[in-house]
Amino acid sequence: ADLCSDYRVICPDVVGRGQSERLRDAMAYGFPTYVADMVTLLARLGVDQVDWVGTSMGGIIGMLLAAQQDRAGRRLVRKLVLNDVGPAYEQVFVDRLKTYLGQPVHWKTVDEAADALLRISAGFGAHTREQWLALTRPMLAPAGEGFGLHYDPAIATPIRAMTPEVGAAGAAYLWHCYGQIVAPTLLFRGADSDLLTPATAARMAAEGPCAQLHEFAG
Description:
Elements: H1 31-45, E1 50-55, H2 57-66, E2 77-83, H3 91-100, H4 110-119, H5 129-136, E3 140-142, E4 147-149, H6 156-160, H7 164-180, E5 185-190, H8 198-206, E6 212-216
Parallel strand pairs: 1-2, 2-5, 5-6
Antiparallel strand pairs: 3-4
């Protein structure tokens, strides 16, 4: 909302989330699909370049897009903002994700949902109740006489199948892609994050686009 006075802002629901359709093949929930969808979206929008702001999965999609160039050497991403995400898969984060992602859930009220989501989001820092409810509401979808989450539970299938070896191979590929990025890159890190470690953030500031790093306490 703040950016809309200066930018045309596009906020896509990635496939399997929000108002986007769900896939028949759960194993197709992965970055090749997501990146292909975003390339198609940009073509439909009729734009040659974008400034990309990505959190978590959205940041990885942004890195993969920013590494691409066409035959004339033109890049899709002009500037890149990465919010608390990097090329490395931290196993502690993946293990925690597996404990709740895709699990069947149902809450009678928004407040009940907010309490449950807060319990798995300790690393997100301190929020007032009003702030946390504002973050919770967009994650919910009506379900019977209450609420569920607004994503296809099957998105967890590829993540549950991920082994440390697969994660290491994926991280190696992402580091390679990160090294191909030339767009000015801004990197945010939450000091309590278990997704983006200090070592990964420091490496991102020294390699590839040499991201400008800002860390937030708490």
